[in-house]
Known about the structure:
This protein is of the alpha/beta class and 425 residues long. 29% of the residues lie in helices and 24% in strands.
Amino acid sequence: MKVIIKPGAVKGTIHAPASKSAMQRACALALLHEGKTSITNPGISNDDKAALSIITALGASVSANVDGSLEVTGLNGSGDNTTKTIDCGESGLSIRMFAPIAALQDASITVTGSGSLLKRPMDFFDEVFPSLGIFIKSNNGHLPLEIKGPLKPADITIDGSLSSQFLTGLLIAFAKGAAKQVTIAVSNLKSRPYIDLTLQLMKYFGYKVQNNHYESFTIEPATASPDPVKYTVEGDWSGAAFLLVAGAVSGSLTVKGLDVFSAQADKAILQVLMAAKANISITPEEITVSSKKLDPFHFNATDCPDLFPPLVALAAYCDGTSVIEGVSRLTHKESNRALTLQEEFGKIGIGIKLQDDLMIIEGGTPVNAATVHSRHDHRIAMALAVAALRSNGAIEIEEAEAINKSYPSFYEHFKMMGVDTTIFE
Length: 425
């Protein structure tokens, strides 16, 4: 699929998509809950669909209600011991979170994926799983994985530098499987806000975890409860960041459905917009951003690396040089995002330099009409679409369907905002 976007000003009101970070975690916790879980405002992205297919494969039942909510009946016990396969699609969170959760079962389980996920390193499991009583066989540190539990929670120390998602999976699995108090020590933990989100949802489902300054986490044995749980998935700050930047770049836009007190890491987009002196109004119900001359900014995105793409689109229209820290966090995404951003934004005339852990963007220069490529990365496609809003001509995005991974309605929302958007299937 290709999409052609012509320059123009955004306007109106858009409701933020559901957070796939929250949705996927809710699916994992609903799987392990021994009662029923009602999930309101469920996500519809490919990553959300992957999570639902995984919990179904592992023994949960999922049904849709007439109001759009989902009802999940979790496992009664530890599941059966039949051989299973779980397909994580291209979801990095799904593979890293569900692998230890699946290993709670006394079953042979094959963990597969597709696309860029096949290239992401999974050495973490090879190193950690044997110490937890789990048999594992990987493809030289990559998918597919063959695992067999049951996982036996134990005091361990792990490296948190590659991704906090590994820790998320262990925290949930340990909380479900621990027969006594157990501690996970972590060195060099990245993306701490995502762990805050994990702990927030675990508490909602009744688990007790003590955060010891992000250096270790003490997990108490779970007390089984069959009481029903009702959970509403909050709006997605990661997807909404592109909408908010669009308003700051060209026109005026109001975004609803975002929790200003959210634990989501990408809520930090508000800090950057304020640093760039964007016109912004924030209330608990809605956020409105309108365009004006923007100042360059300096921001450390180490704990929120998914903000790099919308921040590059923002920096393109700032009057001067902007700097984003945390480039090292971009290597193992859907693409090598640092190089991808440099190359694709270079096609439209935006100069980006990579220096050590810094990304340096030269803003204030013309953004040119061009044909660009998503590189099969949803956030790259959305960033280029936002950059087109004040370009000197149409920007054509190839393999534009990459947005389905996280925000399937993105282009339709662009149309709703008044942007001339043509989709070629």
